[in-house]
Amino acid sequence: MSYKNDFDTAIEELCETFRFLSQTGCRGFNCSKESLKIMECWGHKQARSLETLEAIRIDLGECRRCRLSESRKNIVFGAGDPHARLVFVGEGPGYDEDQKGEPFIGAAGRLLTKIIEAIKYTREQVYICNIIKCRPPGNRNPLPDEIEVCLPFLKRQLAAIKPDVICALGAFAAQALLETTMPISKLKGHFHDYNGIRVLPTYHPAYLLRNPGKKRDVWEDMKKLMKALDT
Ligand code: URA
What we know:
Layout: H1 3-23, H2 33-40, H3 47-50, H4 53-60, H5 68-71, E1 79-80, E2 86-90, H6 95-100, H7 107-118, E3 127-130, H8 144-161, E4 165-169, H9 170-178, H10 184-187, E5 192-194, E6 197-202, H11 205-210, H12 215-230
């Protein structure tokens, strides 16, 4: 092969890797030692399988991509087993989560822990994360542009974890993942597809705290979740 052909092939492979990364939401790199080390191990067509949660966290950095960075205390990236079969996706961090940088550790989190234990898992055996990684001031709803800029990181996390099932907690998580505006009352309790992964939306634990009568509905959904994980 001529020198020129080698060069052309290398450029083509580089472009292919960058195209893949841009599809997964990557919008640039820093040139820190850590990032360069990660990039060094990217081979042709291997980017998808080699991306790790650590690499995604490094790429997220001290994120300033949206206004939520101005008021947050900590980025809440996600926690749990990086190879979990089951991932819970919530809306966004609240006060307690922002203080500690950990997802679902406040009142809604304690209820989520009970739900996880009721289906015979522990928090350490699943992965827990959110649509957005920084707390909206006063716990307001996330805005569309905040979701848009943050969602690619969640998508990369899901591509790295490759779970069997995703449980979307509440309307924001379900609608963002499934790219729909259908209400949670219609989406919940049914399996949907996200890039070949089954997604089961259910009510958000914070909603259950306000509407305890809906816990029965969530339990019905959790039974479906357990069955899906059995198969
Ligand atoms: N509610 C969420 O949606 N996520 C958290 O991490 C905490 C509360």
